[in-house]
Amino acid sequence: MSSVGIVTDSIADLPPEIVEQLGITVVPLVVRFGTDVFRDGVDLSPDEFYEKLKYSKVLPVTSAPSPTTYAEAYDKLAEKTNEIVVISLTSKLSATYQVALQSVGLMKRPCRVEVIDSQWAVMAQGFITIAAARAARAGASLEEVLGVVRQAIHQVDMRAAFDTLEYLERGGRIGKAQALLGSLLKINPVISIKDGEVHPYARERSWAKAMDNLCNFAASFSKVEALAVEYATYLDEANKLIERLQSKYPQAPIYLSHASPVIGTHTGPGLMLVSVFGQPG
């Protein structure tokens, strides 16, 4: 049998080339515009989603993958391996972790499946998945892969800047960042994830200051092994941010990630995000 199989969900926002290169199985969440149902990033690309969001009179809603979707993904992998590690987005923002867990009982093939709550989302979750996949491909045992995952959970962090928190509030995912709402001033809020929940981080008076904040956040790490810049619709801004980070960290790989439709449903089009894998300062 081949190495330990690695599964994550579409919220990890992994670049497609990384998914292919490392053989990661990505289970898509679901986006609904009224009666139209789309698999996140499969039936609806990020570009198509943000265009639809602009003109749709119906606001999108999201849901976890079905148990059958997970069970089918597990069974397909079980044709090649008898051990699978699943890295799920934080259970405090979605039912996805519970579904991933419950779906093991629906499998038709015998296989050991371990489901881990990453406590993260976006490329912070993505970096944990990448670390697990690299370990698996290097021949690590299931227990060793689990050890890599548990360590990586403490090696990642992220900050996200927004035009508005309206989408997070509307989707009920705002958590403790509720504290950033209600300002009469035009602000660009910056949020983080802490203990699996959305937390307030800063209010910046301009987009430029918000971008400085993201760069300063990356600089707060004592060691940076990899970075990711994630955007919804501001590709030019994302590339500028990558240039700034490259000048500070010329040795570290920097991934460009496009925020998936499910992420976009809860953040809106004005999202810019930096995730870091390394040693927090």
Sum this structure up briefly.
The chain has helices spanning 16-22, 46-55, 67-77, 96-102, 122-137, 142-152, 166-170, 207-219, 235-248, 261-267; strands spanning 5-9, 25-27, 30-33, 36-39, 61-63, 83-88, 112-117, 156-162, 188-194, 197-204, 221-231, 254-258, 271-280. With 281 residues, the protein is an alpha/beta fold.
CA distance, first residue to last residue: 41 Å
CATH-level-2 architecture of the largest domain: 2-Layer Sandwich
What is the strand content? 25-35%
Task: Indicate the mean pLDDT.
Answer: 93
Radius of gyration: 18 Å
Major sheet characteristics: 6 strands, mixed
Give the class-level CATH name of the largest domain: Alpha Beta
Side by side, the strands of the main sheet go 10-9-8-13-11-12
Per CATH, what is the topology of the largest domain? Hypothetical Protein Tm841, Chain: A,domain 3
Summary tags:
281 residues; alpha/beta; Rossmann fold; Hypothetical Protein Tm841, Chain: A,domain 3; six-stranded mixed β-sheet; four-stranded parallel β-sheet; 10 helices; 28% strand
Descriptive overview:
It is a single chain. The protein has 281 residues and is α/β, with parallel strands linked by helices. It folds into 2 domains: 5-29 and 64-152, Rossmann fold, CATH 3.40.50; 156-280, Hypothetical Protein Tm841, Chain: A,domain 3 (2-Layer Sandwich), CATH 3.30.1180. Helix content is 36%, strand content 28%. The chain contains 10 helices and 13 strands. The chain has a 6-stranded mixed β-sheet with strand order 10-9-8-13-11-12, sandwiched between helices. Strand 9 and strand 10 (197-204) form a beta hairpin. Helix 5 (122-137) runs antiparallel to helix 6 (142-152) and helix 8 runs parallel beside helix 9. The model has no long low-confidence stretch (mean pLDDT 93).
